[in-house]
Specification:
- The complex is a heterodimer of chains A (401) and B (375).
- Chain A is of the alpha+beta class and 401 residues long.
- Chain A has eleven helices and eight strands.
- In chain A, the strands form two sheets. A four-stranded mixed beta sheet of chain A has the order 1-4-5-8. In chain A, strands 2-3-7-6 form a four-stranded antiparallel beta sheet, with no helix packed on it.
- In chain A, a hairpin with an 8-residue loop joins strand 6 (191-196) and strand 7.
- In chain A, helix 4 (85-98) runs antiparallel to helix 5, helix 4 crosses helix 6 and helix 7 (254-263) packs antiparallel against helix 8.
- Chain B is α+β, with helices and mostly antiparallel strands.
- Chain B folds into three domains: 20-128, Butyryl-Coa Dehydrogenase, subunit A, domain 1 (Orthogonal Bundle); 132-226, Butyryl-CoA Dehydrogenase, subunit A, domain 2 (Beta Barrel); 229-370, Butyryl-CoA Dehydrogenase, subunit A, domain 3.
- Chain B contains eleven helices and ten strands.
- In chain B, strands 1-4-5-8 form a four-stranded mixed beta sheet, covered by helices on one side. Chain B has a four-stranded antiparallel beta sheet with strand order 2-3-7-6, with no helix packed on it. A two-stranded antiparallel sheet of chain B has the order 9-10.
- The two termini of chain B are 27 Å apart.
- Classes of the chains: A alpha+beta (401), B alpha+beta (375).
- The complex binds flavin-adenine dinucleotide.
Chain lengths: 401, 375
């Protein structure tokens, strides 16, 4: 049997004991939530695999799930994990990996507690999949950088206090080599966030206009010109690590579909039944695959299956919600509300089926399109050669756009 | 994202990885099979009168002990489990090895539930080869039709079973004669025992030939308490691992070929249309591995979720193996359509396996009842 890789000094029992001691000292029902979270960070029980002093204890990654479960069971306050997915999942590991000590201390505590929400300023109107082609410029001026450009599809920007930004610092270098990576204060002068309405009617993401925004050089992550490597690291973390433990059967989009199937026998036909069963089997296969990946990660054999899991979930979400609408017959023609507004960040399972059908179209676009992920699998997992390309060694300013 | 309270409930998943012991077992089986039965040897055998590689089978059973893995030590086996059996199945699937492993798995699962310990031990040791005389397409979850009866309720059998797998070299046949009873029939070594006629059929899968068996007054020993359905379910769970091995082999062969083959001045593997196809296949195979491992672990632990696990693994595994074999042939172009290339061995095996022990459609229909998704 493959066992969980733990540093010799800190095992699951030690952590459980620390959590218990912490809870004894900080009763979640009487401690003010933000105070509780700050104390939890200080005790190293925020993300236990982070270093001591930065919310962790240098423990094994796989041990976090049990710690989170123990806190949840005790009714501990949450750190706004849905609202701060980008902060927790992408910004934090990047800051930890490339930030200086003072940057760590400056950003990580309020990020983890959820006091500060983060957003990701990567995509631009002219650069999505081909992120390295981006045009937003950063020009050095003494101890500062002056940034101009436009970002787009920026989720959470309207909630965010900080943004991670990739900008071009050397337009005469080839595209991958002229980029640098910054943390931008979303309240700084020249940052303008405009809601961007999406197909659900809501405005979940934004356009962000950057006009002569001044960023102090001490808000740069990594070296000047190293922005691509830093951004790659951020994107690698985009597929949030799947923890150990058993994922519920029928979780995800198949859940409401199966429930509807059971509640509405009058809608059953042989053709729909076959589709229902196929999706159920595929969802169960995807669930077990994700669990197996979690087991591999916990055992310290990080597998490349992550890209595959994302491709599959995107497709299953789309197909399940589509079939669900078909089962609804006439009601499948109705829509709850197209009024433009800022959506609540909430559990998708509670939203209307038609809304989910529309929202899930984005699953194969956001966080790397399914086509790009297939390229990743083909090249990084199967070792197939990259396609011939003409843009690698040419100065960015000379490329056709 | 989670839905309302999930129905049905979620059994514990258990360990889906391979243990070191399993990896060692895999390595031994692979080394032996690669040496003794590379694909060209397998192909050459299909043109002979001896479709089963009895010598390879002898070495697999006697040197590695593959037939006794799931049998407890005190009953003459190795005291491992269906997990290890499944790993062997992966390797034999990868090689389309012409040995009666799958039939032995089903027979062993059946015998384990009876008191036939002498026979069980002999099968586990590879001294005897048993086959369950049930039509190859019968799967778990549906009653197995009884087509052989006891003459006058006695010990002589009358009737026919068509399309039995791994019966070509079996010297003992286990024949369902009622819902809970089987008849143990001495089948002799070459063709037939008393009152038993075996006809080997020309079979789509040349590496696993079908046998039609007729009993005409064949003497038998009747054994009660036999659970044929459970045996078929174990068979389906293990078959999913065989399909996994086959699918992986097809993908690996295709990747290797497309990297090497150049057209239009570049490696075929650099064309995105082909890369995406292979990426999709790889994704499907990672899922087939997860479902097959889960089925094997449920079989090993006697989990009450085995019926669901086996149905999911079989429904998914059949489709993935077939896709892998069909894509492999297509992406090899003309060479893949020739007799002298291995692609057809995998295609025929995969196509046949998608019918063995219940088709994907069969397993989905069974699942509909198990997880409360009625027609
Ligand atoms: C809901 C949502 C939230 C988002 N949130 C954020 C965010 O917070 N921050 C942020 O920076 N970005 C965000 N994005 C942007 C997202 O990362 C991009 O939309 C995505 O990377 C695709 O880029 P694009 O839209 O420019 O499409 P394009 O890159 O122009 O692609 C168009 C089509 O061409 C295909 N394609 C492109 N290149 C290739 C290739 N080499 N081979 C094959 N096919 C190819 C794509 O798959 C796609 O189908 C979000 C997007 C959505 C939908």
């Amino acid at each position: 049997m493959t066992s969980t890789d733990t540093p010799p000094d800190l095992g699951a029992e030690d952590l459980a004991a620390r959590v218990e001691a912490f809870l004894a000292e900080h009763d979640p029902s009487t401690t003010e939530p933000s105070e509780f979270l700050r104390e939890r960070f200080a005790a190293g029980l925020a993300w236990v695999h982070y270093p001591a002093g930065l919310g962790g204890l240098g423990a094994a990654n796989g041990l976090q799930t049990a710690v989170d479960a123990a806190f949840a069971e005790a009714g501990a306050p949450e750190n706004r994990p849905r609202l701060n997915v980008i902060g927790l999942g992408m910004a934090a590991p990047t800051i930890l990996r490339f930030g200086t000590e003072s940057q760590h201390r400056r950003w990580l505590p309020s990020l983890w507690t959820g006091e500060d929400i983060w957003c990701q300023l990567f995509s631009e109107p002219g650069a999505g999949s081909d992120l390295a082609g981006l045009a937003t410029s950063a020009v050095r001026d003494g101890d500062e950088w002056v940034v101009n450009g436009q970002k787009v599809w920026t989720s959470m920007a309207h909630h965010a206090r900080w943004g991670i930004l990739v900008a071009r610092t050397d337009p005469s270098a080839p595209k991958h080599r002229g980029l640098s990576y910054f943390v931008v204060d979303m309240q700084a002068p020249g940052v303008e966030v405009r809601g961007l309405r999406q197909i659900t009617g809501e405005a979940e993401f934004n356009e962000v206009f950057l006009t002569d925004v001044r960023i102090p050089d001490d808000q740069r992550l990594g070296e000047v010109g190293q922005g691509w490597a830093v951004a790659q690291y951020t994107l690698m973390n985009e597929r949030v690590a799947i923890g150990g433990g058993t994922l519920p059967r029928e979780s995800g989009a198949v859940g409401p579909l199966a429930a509807r199937w059971r509640e509405h026998p009058e809608a059953h036909t042989p053709g729909l039944h076959d589709r229902m069963l196929r999706l159920w089997v595929q969802t169960e296969a995807a669930r077990l695959t994700a669990e197996r990946l979690g087991q591999q990660q916990a055992a310290g054999q990080p597998g490349p299956e992550g890209s595959g899991v994302k491709i599959t979930y995107a497709r299953l979400n789309q197909e399940c919600s589509s079939l669900e609408l078909e089962l609804r017959g006439e009601d499948g023609l109705r829509y709850p509300d197209y009024t433009e507004r800022r959506p609540e960040v909430e559990d998708y399972g509670r939203r209307d089926a038609a809304w989910r059908y529309l929202r899930f179209r984005a699953n194969s676009i956001e966080g790397g399109t399914s086509e790009i992920l297939r390229n990743v699998v083909a090249e990084r997992v199967l070792g197939l050669p990259a396609e011939a390309r003409a843009d690698k060694d040419v100065p960015w300013k000379d490329l056709p756009r | 994202m989670s839905a309302a309270a999930p129905t049905p409930s979620t059994p514990e998943t258990g360990d889906l990885l391979y243990s070191d012991v399993e990896e060692d077992l895999r390595a031994s089986v692979r080394a032996l099979v690669e040496k003794q039965a590379p694909w060209d040897v397998v192909l050459a055998r299909t043109d002979t009168e001896e479709p089963v590689d009895t010598d390879l089978w002898k070495r697999l059973t006697q040197e590695i002990g593959v037939a006794g893995l799931a049998v407890p030590e005190e009953r003459g086996g190795a005291g491992a489990s269906w997990r290890e059996v499944a790993v062997v199945a992966e390797e034999l699937g990868r090689a389309v090895a012409p040995v009666p492993f799958l039939g032995t798995v089903v027979a062993t699962a059946l015998l384990l539930g009876t008191g036939e310990d002498e026979l069980l031990a002999a099968v586990a040791a590879g001294e005897r080869t048993a086959a369950v005389a049930v039509g190859a397409t019968r799967g778990p979850g549906r009653p197995v039709p009884v087509t052989v009866e006891r003459q006058g309720g006695g010990d002589l059998l009358q009737g026919t079973v068509t399309a039995v797998i791994d019966a070509v070299t079996a010297d003992v046949l286990l024949v369902p004669v009622s819902g809970t009873e089987i008849a143990v029939v001495e089948a002799g070594v070459d063709g037939g025992g008393d009152g038993v006629t075996r006809t080997t059929a020309e079979s789509l899968d040349m590496t696993r030939r079908l046998t039609d068996v007729t009993f005409d007054g064949a003497p038998a020993r009747i054994v009660a308490g036999a659970d044929v359905e459970h045996a078929l379910r174990i068979g389906a769970a293990v078959l999913a691992s065989e399909q996994l091995g086959l699918a992986e082999r097809c993908l690996a062969d295709t990747v290797a070929y497309l990297r090497e083959r150049h057209q239009f001045g570049r490696a075929l593997a650099s064309y995105q249309a082909l890369k995406h196809r292979l990426a999709d296949l790889w994704v499907a195979i990672t899922q087939a591995r997860a479902t097959a491992r889960y089925a094997a672990r449920c079989a090993a632990d006697g989990s009450p979720d085995l019926p669901v696990a086996a149905a999911v693994a079989a429904a998914h595994g059949s489709e993935v193996a077939l896709l892998a074999a069909e894509d492999s042939l297509q992406l090899h172009g003309g060479i893949g359509f020739t007799w002298e290339h291995p692609a057809h061995l995998f295609l025929k095996r995969a196509r046949a396996e998608a019918l063995l022990l219940g088709s994907a459609d069969h397993h989905r229909a069974v699942l509909a009842e198990l997880v409360d998704l009625p027609a």
